[in-house]
Structures are given as C-alpha cells and as structure tokens.
C-alpha cells in the first residue's frame, strides 16, 4: 500500500497551489523566469502569471530583477522555506526517531545501543519534543514532567521509571535549568512557603555549578558527572516520573521500553 500526503499553503486567507510553488522553486534554483518556464514545460508568460497571482495573494513582491537574473525576495524565500519544511514533514522516509531531554539522553542512548534498534535521537526540552511527536517527526518521546501528559492524551504512554532532583540552596536567588521537571521543584518551594526569585536561566549544567545561586537538577545528571551533592530538600519530595509517549507500540518501541524498565530507575 502506498500512502502519499499532500498539503497546500494559505497566505492572507487565500490558497497558493503546489504548481505555483513549483514555479517559485524553479526560479529560485535557476535564477531565471525563462529557464524556469523551460524546465517546467510552460511558457514564460504563464510563469509570469503564476508569479503575479502569488504576489497578489501575498500582497508583496516575491521576486526581483538583478544584473544576474531573477532572485526571490525575503518573502519569496520564506514562502519556499515553509513549503519545503511542510513537504519534509509529510514524508515517512526518516528512520525510527526518539526525542528526549538531556536528563534522559544517556539512558536513551544506552537503550538504542543495547537493543540494537536503528534510531535517530533528538535532544531538546519537553515542549519541543511534544511538538515533534505531534508533527510526526518523532515516534517516541521521553517526558520528564508528568503534568505534560495532558498535552498528549491521544497517545499511548508508559511510566518507565522515576528520578529524584537535588536542591542546592545558596539563598533566595535561583538559576533555572531548562530541562527536567523543574515545575515540580518550584511548586515544592511554594508549598514550603519559601520566598525566592528566578534571576537566571541556563541550558548548561556547568552554569548551574558555577553560578553561586540556588538551583534544582536531576540527581542522575550529577551522577553521570561523578558529582555527589546533598539535597537541601528531601529528594522524595522532588521525585518525578519518566514517561515514554508514543503513537502505537511497534517492535522498536517494545524493545526500548523493556530496556528502560529493566534499569529500575528509582
């Protein structure tokens, strides 16, 4: 069975056809309306008409004449960029893909290596990974924050373990790490009636360690770096589940799930 998905673009409430986008793409590649017409098997006046129609819809110029030929304007290039991205998302030629955060990156790499699953691994934050799953760019995502399951309630999911966070208390000024279930940690501060302010944010573990500010970080990340730090708050109060979310359970997902569960995360 062959399945093909087609999309169309809407600009200012009006449609731009795939044929018009083909003309835009040919002009961009060839730098000439005449060359584009020849490649597409249509006449130059037809190319001009397609471009005029698109510029009418976009309400701006999409191409400009230069001493070297015809070039697309910034808006013309933007339309083409979006069309290319959408076409890429509508194909299913990529390999099996798992998205996770730096918190679980090493676990996912171990799972892929030990199960011999051929996969691409994308490392980003929970929100970006959820979007990747919904857009069909990922087959499985590993969520750090269980509250975000409400964003993916149409998908299958399974808790594969738990992690504890470490609270480093250097006073009321905090630096926030971009990854992990930080929401749970700061909610705990509020439950305890602690007054605090988040005065910085970082993607890097090293920034946390060098900041002299207070912060929360998953204990697992510290262990990977050979660091052992006593938590200022009971780690059990900062515990959060690690959840695998996926569309349906295929053989690759089954193997990865079994491996993650076998690690017996706290």
Structure explained in plain terms:
The strands form 5 sheets. Strands 6-5-7-13-8 form a 5-stranded mixed beta sheet, with helices on both faces. It has helices at residues 18-30, 33-40, 44-58, 74-89, 105-115, 126-134, 182-191, 205-210, 219-224, 251-262; strands spanning 9-11, 14-16, 63-66, 69-72, 97-100, 120-123, 140-143, 156-163, 165-168, 173-177, 197-202, 215-218, 240-246. The mean pLDDT is 91. Helix 7 links the parallel strand 10 and strand 11 (197-202). With 266 residues, it is of the alpha/beta class.
Biggest pleated sheet? 5 strands, mixed
How would you state the average pLDDT, rounded? 91
User: How many alpha or pi helices?
Assistant: 10
Write the H/E string, N to C: EEHHHEEHEHEHEEEEHEHEHEH
Q: Record the strand order, biggest sheet.
A: 6-5-7-13-8
* Global geometry: elongated
Low-confidence runs of at least 5 consecutive residues: none
Strand content: 15-25%
Give the N-terminus to C-terminus distance in angstroms: 44 Å
SS content category: alpha/beta
Q: Multimeric state of these chains?
A: single chain
């Amino acid at each position: 069975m062959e399945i093909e998905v087609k999309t169309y673009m809407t600009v200012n409430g009006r449609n731009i056809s795939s044929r018009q986008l083909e003309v835009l793409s040919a002009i961009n590649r060839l730098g000439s309306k005449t060359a584009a017409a020849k490649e597409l098997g249509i006449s130059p006046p037809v190319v001009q008409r397609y471009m005029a129609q698109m510029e009418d819809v976009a309400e701006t110029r999409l191409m400009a004449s230069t001493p070297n030929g015809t070039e697309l304007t910034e808006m013309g290039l933007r339309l083409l960029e979006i069309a290319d991205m959408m076409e890429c998302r509508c194909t299913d030629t990529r390999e099996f893909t798992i998205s996770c955060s730096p918190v679980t990156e090493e676990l996912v790499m171990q799972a892929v290596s030990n199960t011999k699953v051929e996969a691409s691994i994308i490392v980003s934050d929970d929100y970006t990974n959820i979007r990747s799953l919904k857009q069909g760019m990922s087959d499985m995502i590993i969520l750090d924050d269980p509250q975000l399951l409400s964003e993916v309630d149409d998908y299958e999911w399974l808790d594969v373990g738990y992690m504890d966070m470490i609270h480093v208390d250097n006073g009321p000024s905090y630096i926030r790490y971009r990854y992990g279930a930080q929401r749970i940690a700061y909610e705990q501060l509020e439950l305890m009636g602690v007054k605090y302010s988040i005065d910085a944010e970082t993607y890097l573990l090293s920034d946390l360690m060098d900041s002299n500010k207070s912060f929360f970080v998953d204990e697992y990340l510290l262990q990977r770096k050979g660091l052992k730090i006593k938590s200022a708050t009971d780690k059990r109060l900062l515990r959060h589940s690690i959840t695998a979310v996926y569309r349906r359970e295929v053989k690759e997902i089954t193997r990865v799930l079994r491996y993650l569960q076998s690690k017996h995360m706290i």
